[in-house]
Amino acid sequence: MAMMCGARRYGVGESVRRHRTRECKLARCTDSQACWVECSVRHTCDCARLLPFVMQANLRALRERASDSPTLARYDQIAQRVTGDPAAHANDGVAWLSALCTELTIAPLSQFGLARADFPAVIAQAQKASSMKGNPLALTDGELRQILDQAL
């Protein structure tokens, strides 16, 4: 969902070429190298903003649709590592990430111009994205909409 411009998916040279040939989705793109940097920063901020909400949605979906999945134990391990608490559980990891985003003042997606009217297009692109193949299970459009709404 965070890949709005594609800079992360392509190498620097390919991203610069895409911007030069007006394939960039940023209307204000005038300097291809500066735009690539802006897209890379934007992608990083988008990912950071989405991560706790995506983790939360994945946990809820796993518990509801695949409660025997070993991925749930992996989320506990992640929580233990990020919190430094050997007794931490997955929800503690989500809370830790949310607090980190607050501490780092990660901007809501609305500050980058995303609006609820954009959700259908973003969700459609996200459902086709190769990055979604690595998700523990397929999230529904409704779950993706909820993630975006929380990150807005």
Please give a quick description of this structure:
By secondary structure, the protein is an all-alpha fold.
Task: Quickly list its features.
mainly alpha; 152 residues
Describe this structure in words.
The chain is mainly alpha-helical. It has a domain at 48-151. Helix content is 60%, strand content 0%. The protein has six helices and no strands. It has helices spanning 12-20, 32-65, 71-83, 90-103, 119-128, 141-151. The longest helix has 34 residues, at 32-65.
Secondary structure topology:
Blueprint: H1 12-20, H2 32-65, H3 71-83, H4 90-103, H5 119-128, H6 141-151
Helix pairs in contact: 1-2, 2-4, 2-6, 3-4, 5-6
From the spread of the alpha carbons, the general shape counts as globular
- The oligomeric status of these chains comes to single chain
Helix content: 55-70%
Mean residue pLDDT: 80
Number of strand segments: 0
Number of helices: 6
Q: By helix and strand content, what is the structural category?
A: mainly alpha
In whole angstroms, the N-to-C terminal distance is 13 Å
Uncertain runs are: 1-24
Order of helices and strands: HHHHHH
Strand content: under 5%
Which sheet architecture does the biggest sheet show?
none
As a whole number of angstroms, the C-alpha radius of gyration is: 17 Å
